[in-house]
Amino acid sequence: MTDNHTQDIHTMNFETAFNALQENVAKLEGEDLPLETALMLFERGHALAKRCAALLEEAELKVRMLTSDVSDTPPTEE
Questions:
Q1: ∠ at Cα 31 (22, 12), nearest 5°?
Q2: Structural domain of residue 50, as residue ranges?
Q3: How far apart are CA 73 and CA 51, in angstroms?
Q4: In whole angstroms, what is the distance from residue 76 CA to residue 78 CA?
């Protein structure tokens, strides 16, 4: 297995988590898996999707904060 499978999901950056999620989905869609394995992959996929969503939400909040700082700043006179 690759590092994506062994790395703790909570420490993954967005790109790593998203790639691992895509791999998970491909395995679930493309293989005839035993129920236990499919459930394990589903649970991992759910955790990866939550991680991606949290990181996107965090990024959106930062963008909102940065853009509100810009709009709150009075224009400078040259």
A1: 25
A2: 8-70
A3: 33
A4: 6
Residue 7 DSSP label: S
pLDDT for res 52: 97
Q: pLDDT digits over 1-45, tens only?
A: 444 455 699 999 999 999 999 999 999 998 789 999 999 999 999
Closest CA to 52 of 20, 5, 24, 28: 20
User: What pLDDT score does 58 carry?
Assistant: 96
> CATH number, domain at 53?
1.10.287
Q: Which helix (H) or strand (E) holds 34?
A: none
- Split into its structural domains, the chain has a count of 1
